[in-house]
Amino acid sequence: MTKIRRAFARNLKTIRLEKGQTQEELAEKIGISVRYIQLLEGKNTPNVKLDTLETLAKALKVHPSDFLK
Questions:
Q1: What letter does residue 62 receive in the DSSP assignment?
Q2: How many helices (H) and strands (E) does the chain have?
Q3: How many CA atoms lie within 13 A of 66 on its CB side?
Q4: Nearest residue to 30 (alpha-carbon basis) of 16, 18, 46, 44
Q5: Is it true that domain 3-60 has CATH number 3.40.470.10?
Q6: How far apart are CA 64 and CA 69, in angstroms?
Q7: Is the pTM of this model over 0.90?
Q8: What does the alpha-carbon distance between residue 6 and residue 24 come to, in Å, rounded to a whole number?
Q9: Which of 3, 14, 31, 60 has a CA between 20 and 30 Å from the CA of residue 66?
Q10: 44 near 1, Cβ under 8 Å?
């Protein structure tokens, strides 16, 4: 996995937990499967569409770039 994907996975999980949301709650909030959230936070993070990145950021009330720091 590339460095940027590792950073994304780590930051998504960290931000989600800081916001007090479970994977299930986040998935339901944005209309995707829990399994996809698990994949995004996992060791084999798939490519993420920009639309999905933006949707996650809005749901978690962060800037999209926060996932890539």
A1: S
A2: 4, 0
A3: 15
A4: 16
A5: no
A6: 10
A7: yes
A8: 21
A9: 31
A10: yes
CA 49 – CA 1 distance, rounded (Å): 17
pLDDT, tens only, 11-40: 999 999 999 999 999 999 999 999 999 999
Distances (CA, A) of 22 to 2, 10, 50, 53, 56: 25, 15, 22, 18, 13
Dihedral angle of Cα 39, 44, 49, 53, to the nearest 10 degrees: 60
- Largest Cα separation within the chain, whole Å, is 28
Domain segments of the chain as ranges? 3-60
- Residues 24, 14: contact at Cβ < 8 Å? no
